[in-house]
Design the sequence.
C-alpha cells in the first residue's frame, strides 16, 4: 500500500509538467500560501544554517507523515506579453503534536537553494492534531524548461523523514508560453518560396512588442551556422516582411528569427527539409589519385555505395564491399575506374538516388572499339592510361541469362596506345560476348560487348557492298550528265560565235566593194608560156580582202 501511494505521488508529480505542455496554464492574480481550514500558517524564509535533525518519535516516518505532494506550474501576468511562471507546491501531511510545520526547498544546479518555512500556530496544530492537513504555496519563481529538485521536510527536522522529487517546468514549445512569457515569445515565421529567383519571402507575426527583430538564413547542424544572409526588422515598421536570397534549396537551410533582446529564444523553420536530392551533388574526382569523393553539405543518415548501371534496364547493381555510412566527414572511394557505367548510389530510409558522374564521358580512361576491316569484327582497346584489363570470352544461352565465361585473358595496355584483340574464332561463336574489366583499381565496372555470328555477317556485308555499288553508279551517272551538259553548252556557244564572225566579215566585204570599186578590178589575164604547158596566173587584185586563186594544168 505504501509503495502504491509513493508511485501515485511520483506519477502525479511527473504528469503535471507534461500536461502543462499541451494546455493553457492556470492563471493567478497574486501568489499566496493556503492551509487547510482551521489551520493557521505563517510563512518565513528558512534558516541560513538549519539546525541538526532530531530523532523521530516511534512510528514516525516519511510514509506516515507525507501522504500526497504535488508540483505544478501556474502563470501570473501583468500584461498580455508580461507573464511569468510560479511553482505551486501542494503538500498533504498527517499532523501530530511533534510536527510544528513544514520546510520546502527548491534546488537548481549551480544555484543556492530557495527555501521557505510554513509554520503552524500552536493552538491550531493542537486543535487539528491527528488529522490530515494541506499546505499550498505558489510564490516560488521558476523559469521555462527549468529542472529543479524539491525537498520537503518537517519542522523541526526529523532524521530520515524527507520527501524529495524532481520537476521540469514547461518548455517554450508550450503555446501558452510562446504567446505570453517574454523569454518564450519568438514570433511566428511564414514564408513563400520562389525557386526561379531563389528567394524566400518571410513574414513575421506575434513577435515581442516594442522590440526589433532579427532574421537570417543558416545551415542547421550541431548549431545553425549563418550563411551571411540576415536582416533586421525595425519595430516601427507596420508590416514585418523580408526577402532572403539563397543559393541552393538544401534540407538543412533554415530561416531563424529572434527578438533583439539578450538571450532571446529563437524560432527556426526549414523550408526544404524534405529535399534530400539536393545533397547528392558535389561529387569530385581526383584524376591523379583516381579517388572519387563526396562530402555531405547537411547532416543526413544515409549509406553511399558504388554501383554499375546496366545498359539494358538502367538498374544499378552494387559493387561488392563499396558501402559506406555517411558521417560528417568526406566519403572517399580510392582507386576508382572512371567508366560511364560506374555510379554512386545514395540511400536514405527507403529511398535511393543514383548519380553517374562519368556519364558525359569526359574522364574516359579506356574504351572498346569494333571495326570490320574484312568479313569479321576486329576488337580494339584504346587507352588513355597505362592499365591492366581482364578480357573474358563468354556465351549467353536460353537457359541462363547470365553470360558464362569460357576463357579469360590478361591484357596490358600502355598510355595512348591501341591493342587489337586476336579473338576472331572465339567471337564467331553463337551469342559470344566480351567481358572487360580493369584490374589495377579497387572499384571498376565490367563492360560487356556482344557480337553477331560470323556467317550472319556475310549477308550484311553483301548488302552494304551492293548499296555502296548502287550509290557509286548514281554518282557516275550524275557526273556524266553534268559533263554532257557542259559540252553541249560549249558547242552552242562556239556555233553562235562562228556565225557572228562570218556575218561581220560579210559586212566588211560589202563596204570595201562600194567604196573602192576602181581599185578592186582584176586586170586581164596574161598568158605566160612555159616549156611543158601553159599556166594561167592572174595578177593579184588590188583589193587586199580578195583571196588568191591558182590554176594548175599539165
Sequence:
Amino acid at each position: 500500500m505504501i509503495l502504491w501511494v509513493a508511485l501515485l505521488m511520483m506519477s502525479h508529480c511527473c504528469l503535471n509538467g507534461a500536461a502543462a505542455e499541451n494546455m493553457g496554464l492556470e492563471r493567478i492574480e497574486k501568489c499566496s500560501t493556503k492551509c487547510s481550514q482551521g489551520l493557521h500558517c505563517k510563512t518565513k524564509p528558512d534558516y541560513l544554517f538549519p539546525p541538526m535533525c532530531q530523532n523521530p518519535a516511534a512510528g514516525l516516518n516519511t510514509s506516515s507523515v507525507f501522504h500526497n505532494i504535488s508540483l505544478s506550474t501556474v502563470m501570473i501576468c501583468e500584461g498580455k506579453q508580461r507573464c511569468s511562471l510560479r511553482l505551486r507546491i501542494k503538500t498533504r501531511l498527517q499532523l501530530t503534536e511533534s510536527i510544528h510545520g513544514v520546510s520546502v526547498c527548491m534546488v537548481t544546479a549551480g544555484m543556492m537553494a530557495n527555501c521557505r518555512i510554513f509554520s503552524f500556530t500552536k493552538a491550531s496544530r493542537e486543535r487539528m492534531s491527528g488529522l490530515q492537513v494541506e499546505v499550498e504555496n505558489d510564490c516560488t519563481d521558476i523559469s521555462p524548461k527549468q529542472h529543479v529538485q524539491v525537498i520537503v521536510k518537517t519542522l523541526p527536522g526529523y532524521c530520515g523523514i524527507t520527501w524529495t522529487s524532481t520537476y521540469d517546468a514547461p518548455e517554450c514549445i508550450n503555446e501558452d508560453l510562446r504567446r505570453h512569457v517574454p523569454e518564450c515569445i519568438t514570433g511566428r515565421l511564414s514564408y513563400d518560396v520562389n525557386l526561379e529567383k531563389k528567394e524566400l519571402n518571410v513574414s513575421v507575426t506575434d513577435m515581442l512588442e516594442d522590440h526589433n527583430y532579427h532574421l537570417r538564413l543558416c545551415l542547421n547542424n550541431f548549431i545553425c551556422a549563418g550563411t551571411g544572409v540576415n536582416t533586421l526588422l525595425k519595430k516601427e515598421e507596420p508590416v514585418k516582411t523580408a526577402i532572403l536570397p539563397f543559393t541552393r534549396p538544401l534540407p538543412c537551410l533554415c530561416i531563424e528569427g529572434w527578438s533583439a533582446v539578450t538571450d532571446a529564444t529563437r524560432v527556426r523553420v526549414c523550408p526544404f527539409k524534405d529535399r534530400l536530392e539536393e545533397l547528392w551533388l558535389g561529387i569530385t574526382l581526383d584524376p591523379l589519385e583516381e579517388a572519387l569523393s563526396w562530402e555531405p553539405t547537411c547532416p543526413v543518415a544515409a549509406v553511399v555505395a558504388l554501383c554499375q548501371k546496366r545498359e539494358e534496364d538502367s538498374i544499378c547493381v552494387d559493387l561488392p564491399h563499396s558501402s559506406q555510412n555517411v558521417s560528417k566527414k568526406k566519403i572517399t572511394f580510392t582507386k576508382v575506374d572512371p567508366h560511364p557505367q560506374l555510379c554512386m548510389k545514395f540511400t536514405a530510409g527507403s529511398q535511393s538516388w543514383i548519380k553517374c558522374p562519368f556519364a558525359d564521358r569526359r574522364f574516359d580512361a579506356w574504351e572498346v572499339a569494333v571495326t570490320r576491316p574484312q568479313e569479321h569484327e576486329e576488337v580494339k582497346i584504346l587507352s588513355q592510361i597505362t592499365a591492366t584489363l581482364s578480357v573474358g570470352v563468354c556465351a549467353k544461352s536460353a537457359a541462363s541469362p547470365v553470360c558464362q565465361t569460357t576463357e579469360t585473358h590478361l591484357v596490358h595496355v600502355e598510355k595512348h596506345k591501341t591493342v587489337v584483340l586476336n579473338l576472331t574464332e572465339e567471337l564467331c561463336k553463337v551469342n559470344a560476348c566480351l567481358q572487360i574489366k580493369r584490374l589495377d583499381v579497387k572499384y571498376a565496372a565490367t563492360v560487356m560487348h556482344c557480337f553477331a555470328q560470323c556467317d550472319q555477317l556475310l549477308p550484311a556485308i553483301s548488302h552494304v557492298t551492293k548499296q555502296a555499288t548502287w550509290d557509286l553508279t548514281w554518282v557516275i551517272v550524275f557526273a556524266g550528265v553534268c559533263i554532257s551538259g557542259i559540252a553541249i553548252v560549249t558547242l552552242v556557244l562556239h556555233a553562235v560565235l562562228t556565225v557572228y564572225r562570218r556575218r561581220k566579215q560579210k559586212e566588211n566585204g560589202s563596204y570595201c566593194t562600194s567604196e573602192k570599186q576602181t581599185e578592186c578590178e582584176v586586170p586581164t589575164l596574161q598568158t605566160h608560156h612555159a616549156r611543158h604547158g601553159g599556166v594561167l596566173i592572174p595578177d593579184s587584185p588590188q583589193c587586199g580582202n580578195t583571196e588568191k586563186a591558182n590554176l594548175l594544168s599539165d
